[in-house]
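pls ignore typos typing on phone
zinc ion + seq
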Amino acid sequence: TTIGKVITCKAAVAWEPKGEFVVQDVQVEPPHAMEVRIKVTHSSLCRSDVFFWANESLAHTFPRIFGHEAAGIVESVGEGITDLRPGDHVLPIFTGECRECKYCASPKTNLCSKFGVASLETGMKSDGKSRFSVQGKPISRFLGSTFSEYTVVEYAYVVKINPAAPLDKVCLLGCGVTAGIGAVRKIAQMEAGATVAVFGLGTVGLAVVKEAKLQGASRIIGVDNKASKADEGKRFGITDFLNPDTLNKPVDEEIRELTEGGVDFAFECVGNPNVMATAFESCQDGWGTTIVIGVAGRATVTIPTRYLLSGRCMKGTLYGGYKPKTDVPELVEQYLRKDLDVEEFITHNLPFTRINEAFKLLLAGDSLRTVLHF
Ligand code: CXF
Ligand code: ZN
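k done
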């Protein structure tokens, strides 16, 4: 047994921003109190991994182990953990749920004041130290640090799921697909017949498209500047495709014309403040709602206040508004009942050791999700 011992295993270490991932031996400490060590079985790649990996201003956080959309099996648990045990099938989620704080007590949010999104943290909450090292040199963590055969995370980020669920599929529920589905189901709560614009047709945007179609949207306008997204978007349910680069007028103007005044809902799935403002401009006066899902760091959005006075609104959401421990096991059940589907988003499967190829595919926009198999 490995319980209580340091494990030496393979991890993909990024040594510098934009640097190749080196799949190499790392040492993973046993979990401390209230921490869980997980044997990662599958991890997919998300744009947020790319965002933080490519950010030169975060050079001080390197070397770093990225990855956060994953599934695995509990190897061992630290002191004080009573609801998880070795062998449990789990999803490590990038945002936590302590079940005790003011946010966790509220049905209005999935934030958690104790274990929120800690993308800038390089170590554990308790002592600020990473549980990863290479020959004694510490390696920073990033969210769940799932580009590693073993990882350690605090209990609040670990969701136990039905062991009948195929881990190579439900790993996708750990981030992007869930964010898109929840934005439609929980945040927009649209009526059948609604008109929708979706900016950015990556995994999150296409999850929004698919779910909006299921909710009976009458028109779903997909916006992307990659031409190949027209056909891909149609497979997921867009009724119209607009490429802002090839239009002879601003895309928001075109959307307002197509919909006689603007869409009921605009979803921003890019992470660009200008696109967020354009989404807002594309909405109907009176009730048009812009839902921001894209991650843009500390950027600021500028929007005309007169449109707020005319009833438009802009809201944001993290992880589709789902609370990890409360809601995700049920999403897995929905997957098992075929009420929710993730397969369509998996465009590639690769062995973990080929992570650099997976990154290139994502950077080029040539993949939706690549699932890495450990
Ligand atoms: C993001 C949300 C913003 C911080 C980093 C993680 N979520 C997932 O991709
Ligand atoms: Zn993500």
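DSSP finds eleven helices and 18 strands in the chain. The pocket of zinc ion (ligand 2) is lined by residues 46, 48, 68-69, 175-176 (CB under 6 Å). more later
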